[in-house]
Amino acid sequence: MKNFVYALVAILMGIFFTACSNGGGTSPIFTTTTTSQTNLNDGLIAHYEFEDNADDSSGNNNNGAEYGGVTYTDGIIGKAASFDGVDSYIETNTFTDKWDTWSVSVFIKAKDTSKNAMIVERERIGGYYDFNLFVKSDAKVQVETDNSDDTYTISNTSIDTDKWYHLIAIYDGTKRYIYM
User: Can you tell me the distance from the alpha carbon of 179 to that of 100, in angstroms, rounded to the nearest whole number?
Assistant: First the structure.
């Protein structure tokens, strides 16, 4: 099993599972009567800053391997990974075999929205995908889960080229959500 990350930016993997996009989170914390601090590293699997490499800066050693000429360019903060849309990608080892619930947080900047562009996918043995997040050829974002019914959710909003977007995709075990 392998995870493929096609991205144009940094990835933060955490919460359930938290992962990035072609061409390129936190949840609000509510308190009542007690004071507590949320540790953003709880459940963190990997964090890719893309500072001229695909190394995992979470301390979990989930480093990525670059293929097809991945380059690095200026991002929102620091650097971003940039992909040619043809054959460049970053591959990581399998993080975990438990994918009942997950979330992916990524910043993307699309160079072209006229064709499908994979952001993140989690491949199982046999070529089937547990999930994928991509920009469709109509410039809408789609998140798909490959359970028994191969279901998906599509954003209501299209993205523009050359503009940064913060995308969050969540699967709670039943439903998929996309936040832009």
Answer: 20
Residue 143 lies in a domain: yes
The residue among 7, 5, 13 whose CA lies nearest residue 105 is 13
In a domain, 33, yes or no: no
Query: What is the pTM (predicted TM-score) of this model?
Result: 0.73
Full domain range(s) for residue 76: 2-25+41-179
Q: Is residue 64 part of a domain?
A: yes
- Give the pLDDT confidence score for residue 70 in this predicted structure: 93
Pair 108, 135: CB distance under 8 Å: yes
Contact 88, 69 (CB under 8 A): yes
**112 within 8 A of 161, measured Cβ to Cβ:** yes
In the chain, the number of structural domains is 1
* pLDDT averaged over every residue in the chain: 74
**Region of poorest pLDDT, from 6-10, 87-91, 126-130:** 6-10
Cα–Cα distance for residue pair 123/146, rounded to 1 Å: 10
In CATH, what number is assigned to the domain containing residue 57? 2.60.120
C-alpha gyration radius of the chain: 16
DSSP string, 108-157: EE-S--SS-EEEEEEEPTTS-EEEEEEE-TTSEEEEEE-SSS-EEEEEEE
